[in-house]
Structure formats: structure tokens, C-alpha cells
From TrEMBL:
It is found in: Cytoplasm. Residues 46-90 are annotated as: Disordered. This is Rho GDP-dissociation inhibitor 3. It comes from Sus scrofa (Pig). Residues 56-65 have a biased composition (Pro residues). Pfam families: Rho_GDI. Keywords: Cytoplasm, GTPase activation, Signal. Inhibits GDP/GTP exchange reaction of RhoB. Interacts specifically with the GDP- and GTP-bound forms of post-translationally processed Rhob and Rhog proteins, both of which show a growth-regulated expression in mammalian cells. Stimulates the release of the GDP-bound but not the GTP-bound RhoB protein. Also inhibits the GDP/GTP exchange of RhoB but shows less ability to inhibit the dissociation of prebound GTP. Belongs to the Rho GDI family. Gene3D superfamilies: Coagulation Factor XIII, subunit A, domain 1. GO terms for biological process: Rho protein signal transduction. One of its GO terms (cellular component) is cytoplasm. Residues 1-19 form the signal peptide.
Length: 296
């Protein structure tokens, strides 16, 4: 029987199978190996998987750690929304300016002063110390004489360094200058009324004296109130001055008084005269009426 099978295999072409038919494993022993090829010494071929177009399923997620809720990413893996959603640009944080005690924004010059806490102003020197610096330098001595002027006479030590003597409202359309004396009792000015005609051009002249030492950054502020509410704020930068026996005068630029039925009426103005060191040289209140005519 075995001899007949071998003859049949040899006639059919060896391992090519009977009639060209190959066994399922491709060994040529078919049909003897149709069920099992291992007893005959052949090794079955591995069938290749056909590509179905589907990606293999991803591996299952790792088990949650202790104390972590399943399905919720941890704080380390959870990125902010601004980082996870595309190449978006993060909005810039708003810059908050420094504010005063009332909650309003400070002027830019005051913001710069308050926003640089590391800045330390140089130590101040008296006028006598400045004049005695480098006495052998003739060119510096001439410069100081031209800048500071002659040495002022000795003044009463009880006098303040800065004295504001007058404030004048000047207008070409006015019958005459409107002057308030600031050398006496300034509290009495609150009960006085100064009339300003609506729509006219006017200037403010401030007269003051510097008695002892150099003062820097003088400024005059006017806060205008109507029925208890502040409606205007004006700041005039006066400048820096040295002591002198003569009075200084500072005149503001031309301004136009408001006009119309809504702005006519009584106002209360609070004025301040201060410097870079915020020394309160003088503060006072005075009444202002905006009317249709100077005599109203």
C-alpha cells in the first residue's frame, strides 16, 4: 500500500499533490495530511491575515491610582483650556494702575513716583551748603550765582519757606482783575463769591515767595465741586524756585469758561499749593459763580 502511494506521488510530481491539487498546508501529502500533518513530518503554513482597513483597537487605559476618580484626569495631565485648544494666543493680563484712597486713578506723574519703590531721592542740602561746595572752582561759583542769584538777606525764621500771597483771575473782557488776598485769614474766602462770566477767556495768576531754601516741583491744584460732587480738577505745574526777596508770579495758559444754562450757578473751589515732597504750603476754599454777566 505504501509502495503504491509512493508511486502515485512520484507520478504526480512529488510534493505537488495529486492532480496538481495541493494539501491545505502545502506539503504535498494530501489527502493523507488533510486532517493532521504532524505525523508525516511536515510543518503547516501560517495563514496571513487579510487587511480589512480597520486600525487595531488601542490598549485599555491603565487602572486609576489610589485616590483618583475613574475617568477624570489628574492635575498633572489635565492641561488648561487655553493650552489644549489649538495654537491660541493667551490674552494679556490687564495692567492696573495705582489708585488713590478714593478709588480714582492717580495722574501719570504720581503713578511713576509710587510705582518705583526702589527709587530713593538724593539727600537735600541747604542753600548755604550748596553755595559752600567747591569754593575754589570759579566757573562753578559763577554758575551758582547765575542760577541761585545773590544770597538773600536773613529772614524771620518763623516764616514758612513758601508763602502764597495772591491768586488773581484775569480776563480781557472783565471790568478789572479779580484778586483774592491769601496773606490773611483764608477761611473768610469761603463766604466770599467771585463772579466769572460764562464763555469768556481767562487766566489765573499765582503770586508767591520763597524765603529760605530751594523748593522743587511747585504745583497748584484746583478741585471744583457743585452740590457736593467734584466736577473738575485742574493741576498747574509751577516749577522750582530758589529763595528771593522778590515775589514770583506764575500765569496759567488761557482757558475758556463754560457756558450754557446747565453750567450756570454756584461752585465751591478747593485750592492746594504743594510741591514734589507734597508739603502742604497752603490750602483754601472759595466760592465761584458762573453767570450770564459780570454783575450778576
Amino acid at each position: 500500500m505504501v509502495v503504491c502511494l509512493q508511486i502515485a506521488l512520484s507520478v504526480c510530481g512529488g510534493s505537488g499533490g495529486i492532480g496538481g491539487v495541493t494539501s491545505p498546508c502545502g506539503c504535498g501529502h494530501w489527502p493523507l495530511c488533510a486532517d493532521d500533518c504532524e505525523p508525516l513530518g511536515c510543518r503547516p503554513r501560517r495563514r496571513r491575515r487579510r487587511h480589512t482597513g480597520q486600525r487595531p483597537s488601542p490598549p485599555p487605559p491603565p487602572p486609576p491610582k489610589a485616590g483618583q476618580t475613574p475617568g477624570v484626569p489628574s492635575a498633572q495631565t489635565q492641561a488648561p483650556v487655553a493650552q489644549r485648544v489649538g495654537p491660541q494666543v493667551r490674552p494679556a493680563q490687564p495692567v492696573v494702575l495705582l489708585t488713590d484712597k478714593e478709588g480714582g486713578q492717580l495722574p501719570p506723574d504720581e503713578v511713576l513716583d509710587e510705582a518705583v519703590p526702589e527709587y530713593q531721592a538724593p539727600g537735600r542740602k541747604s542753600l548755604l551748603e550748596i553755595q559752600q561746595l567747591d569754593p575754589d572752582d570759579e566757573s562753578l561759583a559763577k554758575y551758582k550765582r547765575a542760577l541761585l542769584g545773590p544770597v538773600p538777606p536773613v529772614v524771620d525764621p518763623s516764616l514758612p519757606n513758601v508763602q502764597v500771597t495772591r491768586l488773581t483771575l484775569m480776563s480781557e473782557q472783565a471790568p478789572g482783575p479779580i484778586t483774592m488776598d491769601l496773606t490773611g485769614d483764608v477761611a473768610a474766602l469761603k463766604s466770599q463769591v467771585f463772579v466769572l462770566k460764562e464763555g469768556v477767556d481767562y487766566k489765573v495768576k499765582i503770586t508767591f515767595k520763597v524765603n529760605k531754601e530751594i523748593v522743587s516741583g511747585l504745583k497748584c491744584l484746583h478741585h471744583t465741586y457743585r452740590q457736593g460732587l467734584r466736577v473738575d480738577k485742574a493741576v498747574y505745574m509751577v516749577g522750582s524756585y530758589g529763595p528771593s526777596a522778590q515775589e514770583y508770579e506764575f500765569v496759567t495758559p488761557v482757558e475758556e469758561a463754560p457756558r450754557g444754562a446747565l453750567v450756570r450757578g454756584a461752585y465751591v473751589v478747593t485750592s492746594f499749593f504743594t510741591d514734589d515732597d507734597r508739603n502742604p504750603h497752603l490750602s483754601w476754599e472759595w466760592g465761584l459763580h458762573i453767570c450770564q454777566d459780570w454783575e450778576s
